[in-house]
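Hello Y.,

Per our agreement to keep a running log of every chain we model this quarter, I'm adding this entry. I've kept the format consistent with earlier entries: sequence first, then predicted structure.
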Amino acid sequence: MRAHFSRPYLDSAGNRVPQAQVRILEAGTNVQISETIYTDGSTGAVKTNPFFTNGGDVSFYLDAPSRVKIGITSPGNPEEFWEDLDVTAPGLDSVHAGSGANSMQVGSGAAAAGVGATATGVSAAATGKDSAAAGRAAQALADVSSAYGANTSASAAGATAVGASAGASAPSSTALGFAATARHASSTAVGAGAATTAPGQVMLGTPTDMVEVAGSFVVRSAGGKRWLLQVSDGGLLATQAAPTSDSGTAGGSAGGAGTVTVLRWVSPRDFGAKADGVSDDTAALQAALNVCPKGGTVYLLPAVYRTSAPLYIPPSVTLLGSHANIEQQAADVVPATALRPLPIFSGNAVVRIVDQVMGSYSELSREQQICDLTIDGRDLAASPAVDGVQLAGNVQGVQVRGLNIQRVSGHGLRSVVDAFGANTPIGLRAQRVVVYKAALDGFNLASPLNSTFVDCESLGATGNGWSLSNPGGATLSACRSGWSGKDGFLIAPGLGPVGLVGCTTDRSNQHGIRIVAGDGSVVNLSGCRLYRDGRNNGAGGGGGWAGLAVISTTCPVVADGLTVTVGADDSSTSGGISPQYGVHADHSRYVSVSSGLLAATDTPWHDGGGNELLLRGPNVTDQKGRSGTEAVRTVPGLRVTTSSLAFTSAGGLVSDVLNPDVVLPSDHGLIAWSQDPGSVTANSAFGAGVVQLIKIVLRAPRTVTNIVAQVVTGGSGLTTGQCWVGLYDATGNLVGSTADQATSWQSGGPKFMALVGGPVVLPAGSYWVALLANGTTLPTFTRGSSVSAAGANINLTAATARWGTVGSGLQTLPSNLAISSIVLSSSPYWAALG
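Predicted structure for the entry above:
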């Protein structure tokens, strides 16, 4: 279908001008377009360019949408131009000029006939001057009238109708809401079914809970939806008093105009909820959840709602309360907004979020939210167990914020696999969730993949504070467990890394953090603080409990900034302190604690045996006993002393690793050397054509620029092109070499011989400096005192020799050494890297 342009050409009085000449030009120019223009949208009838208005309309068709400029010359007047106009294909979203001056119509069947009128939507009609109609079948029929919404009608001057089937039929009248009708001058009807009966009257419909906040009204419309009427000072309903009943007349001025938007909030009270702390509100709550539109909110006003069965939250629906009692502990305190199961409650959780199959949803179950309320399980029977909130199967992107779960007979917050044992929740986000005195675990999470928990706490759980099984990709930040009946955090890692950042424990009955039987990933603990765990049922220590315990774990466990401190019960002033161990590990693959303070009643660092690799860093300090009452005790391992890095042996002997009294290569501006140059007391020449090897060890990756050696007596008659220095790695590969040294070696002194091609980056490892000379009299180089070859290379082989020789009759350095052919040397020559 061809693209179409149509607009009336009107004179200053608003009358159509016939027989005006029209030229269709290229956009931004005065050049006529080259495209063919047509008289209609389908036949081949060609229209000339220029042409004359037919009855005052400028109308033509093009083969394709385009942007043009139009020049119009009316009789007796100069040519005027319409700039950059779009010629568009017709359709629901097409935009056309209306039939009134400066009018516009948008949408299939839309008609704007009044001067300055705008019609938007299927079959919308705006026929009055400066009128506006928006919505399917909306009609603004009078001057300065406005109709917004399906089947709305504003038929009198200055009338406004907003909402489905709203009608304003009198001058300056306003109808807002489903089927609201304002039939009298300057009257206002607000709410479902509201109708005015007298001029200047403001009538309220039948909402059950109209609320005014800062100049805004919330009223109920059809299907439980909410209209939010936002108005400014002096605007519509701005002086309205809050109603005292469900319907009736309220005073106030209806002058001005406000902004009307839809807020999709649903109240369970609209569905019969009593919220009196006694009546069973389960049916009303579930009805509100079921009718709530996608992206909407079921709002619980401050009250206690009793339930007898689980509530199911559909996809993309929010269950929102007004307030959660985050720190509430007293049993006699009634929460501000709470779901409180009745003693007859039947089901496995107070609130359930289930997957698409279990919920019979038409779409993937995702994006549910629970916010700002308390789940109070004080009336639940001890058996069967009832969880607070349960996520089941493949549910994704659930958010839980500002939630208090207390005294439930099961777990507080729980995730479980589906009926097939395959799918679990993904991407759970929990923030400020507190579980108090759960009969089982505070948080019991099976495969909470890629989930994040921030500022969440379990306090006084009979089981574990946190139990995480296969929590791949999960992160816990600033989370806490206090006074748990078992472990503070029990972690069984699976696929994907797990991270605890800034998490704390306090007075766990068993281990503070226990990591068990994990496989396939890594557990990172950063800045965790574990306080007086291992309560041991009040016995005060013992039991083999630790702040951190890693038991039979195949995945790596890496901790830094770990603090384990001892203490007793709050009421105890002496004795009863715990834990027995600071860190305990047994039969585990890799456990590393790089820094921290470890305190314990018995052993701060306890190796239970069977570990493949158990590492403690240089900044780990141990303390036995209560903080500040007993001296810090040293244990085997690297540690930082006042002025050096030292190693404490099992027998308590301390040996310096880096002592400032020992001269190091860096003190000479060197990287590494074969031995202290102050210890070399001899010099000699080595055989012509034989490569002399000197081992140097790099303890860390370094960038090497020079090879350094010391010539004592220069040579003479040295053969040019046959005196070389090179550097080989431990496999015998040549990794760097210098230029020919025949001239340099004819004089004595230190020789800094640059590597050809510039510096070389070398990884940590063993390297051989290789010296090769040929000539009449060879130079002598500094070395240590001669010993036997076996003595100089004690306990080493040819492939690992510290000093050795290889080859004969050589004139250049080989690219590869036959390291199995190295002969141990008795001359410990000196060399260095710089």
